[in-house]
Amino acid sequence: MWERLKEWLQRRMTAGVQDCGAPLDDFVACYEDGEGENITAIIAGKLAMLAFADSALAVEDCNCPEAPGARVLLIRELLAELWHNDAGWITAQMLGKGGKLLLPTYDGGALHIRAIDQSRIAVREMDGSRIAAATLLADVGEVQGRQCSLLADYERCGGDQRISYRAVRSDGAALPLDCVARWAGITPEIGVSGTDRLLFAYLRCPRDNRRERRLYGVPITYGAEQAIAELEEHGRIYRREYKLTRPMLGLDSSLWRGSGAQQAEGGAEIDRLRRTVQDSDDPFVPFDSMSLEGRGIWQYYAPEIRYEAMDARQQMLLRRVERACGLSQGILTERQNVNYANRDEVRAAQYDTFSVVRAIRDEWERALEDLAYAIDVLAERFEITPAGARGQYALRFDWDMSLIESTDQTFEQLRALHGEDLLDGAELRQWVLGGSLKDNRQAVDAIREGRGGN
Hints:
The protein is an alpha+beta fold. The chain contains eleven helices and 14 strands. It has helices at residues 2-10, 24-32, 39-52, 70-97, 225-244, 268-273, 307-324, 343-381, 407-419, 425-433, 437-450; strands at 56-61, 99-107, 110-117, 121-127, 130-143, 146-157, 160-169, 174-175, 189-192, 201-204, 248-252, 284-287, 298-301, 393-398. Strands 4, 5, 6, 7, 8 and 9 form a six-stranded antiparallel β-sheet that branches. It has a three-stranded antiparallel β-sheet with strand order 3-2-10. Helix 3 packs antiparallel against helix 4 (70-97) and helix 3 packs across helix 8.
């Protein structure tokens, strides 16, 4: 998809494409491959769960926290829906494919958030660390049996920004926007003034891409391909080992009857039946038992599996993949046994994984700040909320720390601070039960009033 997008843009004299230096389409194909055991998907899914766990996001009104305005309420609603419903799978795909774009779109009088693969963006110009011009493959349709695509060009010059849409055929030829019914209502060009960034968010996997510039992200297992290939090879050997140890029952070939089993005086059918459990699920095979010399007509074969050797090598290979991805033990291998009463011991055992999780959270904080900014600007541009309230919001993140901390130990520390009047009771209650500080303070006040103000 990225290669096709790049070809379209190269047909335009004004469009230069920054080289990604990485096979973006291959990253997507490998992650979406459902055949066999997908190590990248396993690691990405586990890290996505660890990144969010019991974490929370709050959007507050800077001017009036008690009664937030319509703009802040809109940002809160859209980000809360994204956070609770989609953040987990978006994170897993970001880690598995290298990156995801969070794209706010205006449709039917409302704003919606779409998540698309990074293989659908071509960066055309950079301004420092920010993207100054890019083209997105926004949608794919069909006209008269031929595929066509909707491209969205984002360009910023100074504080002004332009978003323009165009439909093209697979050969790059231009088409009218109404060639696909669902594109008919799209405004061909949107101008926005007073902006300092493009109106979308880009989530990149924090993995090092080993390039001079970090335009595009790479999967969490980037650079660990050799270790993963060896692990997959061992998996095939392990499965074959179990197959080879299935019991085999051998019956004298002279006793096989029916279905032409004794044809052509040499037993052509017998030759066909001379198979082992390596080739078939049938445990019965013919053999020459020499029964006339007093030996039995049955033979039984059931070897033991080399379980300990096979499993030891598998665990070693799993650990190699973890190390290659910069992760602590416990993502693919069994988690270390540590004393959770000893905070330092837990932190040391999980610190590598926690560092990756923290980098994932940093990416989300940056992306959500950009996304909130885009919603803020577009809500004013399309008059969804009253004008004149830009930048009146603040994002607050409460990240779960149970990966490296004991909740019991942390609670005892907070309670000690409360006992020394160094922590408000409402803050302690909020840490335990969650919710807003305002609601917890009201609850604490009500409890104290019920006790006679003590």
